[in-house]
Amino acid sequence: MPNDAPAASRRLLLLAGTTEARQLAEALATTRSSPPIVVTVSFAGRTSKTTPMAGEIRVGGFGGIDGLIAFLRERHIDAVVDATHPFAAIMPFHAAAACISTNTPLLRLLRPAWDMTQRDRWVRVASLQLAARELRTLGSKHVLLTSGRQELAPFAALDDVEFTVRSIEPPDVSGFTHAEVVLERGPFTVESEITLLRQRSIDTIVTKDSGGSATIDKLEAARRLGIRVVIVDRPPSPDVATVSTVDEAVAWVLEHETPFEHGVAMRDISG
Ligand code: NAP
Hints:
This protein is α/β, with parallel strands linked by helices. Helices cover 27% and strands 21% of the residues. It folds into 2 domains: 10-112 and 236-255, 3-Layer(aba) Sandwich (Rossmann fold); 122-232, NAD(P)-binding Rossmann-like Domain (Rossmann fold), CATH 3.40.50.720.
């Protein structure tokens, strides 16, 4: 890909796939900075449609750590913001390794995990496999699965459970005995979630601890109806500078003088 960024610009690689990544790209596009910041937004390409974004878009993996190192060098990237999803288990480690290797500043933009309240009936588990096992232990009969269309396999063997599988794009539920698909993209409302839970007689929700507001209403709906939630904990994250809001990420990008200060920051600046 040609590198047509003006020589005096600063080049930022934004690892995307989240609402926060889109918001950060938009915020940087409307932020005046001298020299200008040229943002390359990178998607893995998991969904068939790429949401329109501010910035230059690239799609597809880099080819592991070595591929990312080559990309950072070829494109003269000055800094990286990793705004991948809390459940992206590999890319954050690749970003950390590549940024250490190329002495490129790295920030992770990671939304906070959800907090359990006293009114919640949550069971935290470490994996989707353990979530499926937990459903057996609990004796769940009508389950809302919101864990993502590509991660349904651990649940297919539960042939005495009626699943409602909610996802943005059609999932493959051919291995399930009882599964009804609901194709919907958040954000939802507490009221619409209560309606769905009642209509489908849901006794248990399975969700990953994605955090954020886009899909939180199901948790409030479950709270109000006294429904159990099996919640899958996040995978490990590399020990890199991390912030939790888009505003903090904008500030991090702007606080670096020209060129970006080099050296991967290993401290947590989320306060
Ligand atoms: P992952 O396990 O951390 O990454 C797997 C591989 O996908 C990486 O090694 C990399 O390939 C490529 N990749 C991931 N994010 C990329 C990006 N932003 N740009 C270019 N390549 C990327 O990630 P995942 O769980 O498969 O998620 C893939 C994407 O979907 C991420 O961008 C994530 O933000 C988004 N997403 C994930 C979830 C989830 O629950 N996992 C939910 C919503 C959105 P190479 O090694 O070839 O570079």
